[in-house]
Amino acid sequence: MCLSVHLNYMFTAHIQVENSIEIGDSGKGHRRVIPITGGSFEGDLLKGIVLPGGADYQILRQDGVTEALAHYTIQTDDGVPIYVVNKGYRHGPKEIIDKLIRGEEVPDDTYYFKTSPVFETGSNKYDFLNKMIFIGEGIRKPSEVQIVFYQVE
Predict the structure, then answer these.
(1) pLDDT tens by residue, 10-24
(2) How far is CA 115 from CA 26, 133, 149, in A?
(3) Which residues are registered as beta bridge partners of 67?
(4) CATH assignment at residue 92
(5) Which long-range contacts (CB under 8 A, 24 or more apart) does 25-29 make?
(6) What total of structural domains would you count in the chain?
(7) Secondary structure element (H or E) that encloses residue 101, with its range
(8) pTM for the complete prediction?
(9) How many C-beta neighbours within 10 Å does residue 116 have?
C-alpha cells in the first residue's frame, strides 16, 4: 500500500494583533494572551476579513517552545462567518525567539512556526472546511501574524 499526502494552498491570512497581556507563570510556563484585532485573508476559494475579538493564548515553555492556541472568527467576502481554532508551535534559537517576544522583526527562515487549524461553519458552500485536515505555516511580524493555510489531500 502506498499512501501519499499532498498540500493544496487555501489562503493567506494577515492577522492583526495588539501587545500581549502578560498573565505570568502558571506552573505550565509563562502564560500570555495576544488580542486579535482584525485582518484579512485571501486565496483562490476563500477571501474576506478577520473579525476582531479573538485571541492567541500562549504558553512560553521552559524549553523555549511557544505553544499557541488561537480562537478567532473569519468572515468571507460573501458574509459567511467561520470559527477558527488554530493550535501550533513556535521555536528557534533563543536570541531569535527573544526578539520575536519583544516585537522585533527577524528573518522568516530563522525559526519554526507551524499550526494545525480546525474550521467550523454552518454554510453549505464552505462545508468542506468542516471535513478536511489543514496545516498552517506562520510568520510573526511586529503587529501581525501571517499564516499560509494548506489543505492536506
Answers:
(1) 999 999 999 999 999
(2) 23, 11, 9
(3) 59, 89
(4) 2.40.160.20
(5) 26/59, 28/59, 28/61, 29/59, 29/60, 29/61, 29/62, 29/67
(6) 1
(7) helix 94-101
(8) 0.93
(9) 14
